[in-house]
Amino acid sequence: MSYIQLSYGDLAQPALLVVMDGVLSLALGLKLEKQLAIATVRMVVQLVLVGYVLTFLFAAVSPLWTALAAIIMVLFASREIVARQKRRLPGVWKYGLGAGCTLLAAGTVTMLALLTELRPDPWYHPRYALPLLGMILGNTMTGISLGLDVLTSSLVRERAAVEACLALGGTRH
Predict the structure, then answer these.
(1) Stronger pLDDT, 136 or 165, i.e. the higher one
(2) How far is CA 16 from the centre of its chain?
(3) Domain total for the chain?
């Protein structure tokens, strides 16, 4: 596998942009310097850790490690879906519905793309499967969080109608 080598100059360019943001914040009195510094340190640490994890995964090329990484990605996506909700479902449904929909939608599309269009050898190669899953999860998270938001808002808005249906013996079926 070939890697793109980054020089110190390549890394200095984005760092210079962050420093310029800090200088602008100071000059304009926005008082965002501390938040910017903390966010920058977090970003660097996260990117270094993700780099080490991806280096391991790309070298291992194991269906077990790829599946484990994919499950972790789906769990983080599910947590983000819950965080975006204005009104949250109670109990297990809070995480379960979002996680189930995410796993079903993103998993199906990712597997379909890997097995019919991309066809890497092996099909579970993390170099292809994980970035593809990440892109699909980004879109899926938006759709599912909007759908759940509309569902919960509709239930609150139409509470009287739902309770009337239940009182008259209405069921899910």
Answers:
(1) 136
(2) 28
(3) 2
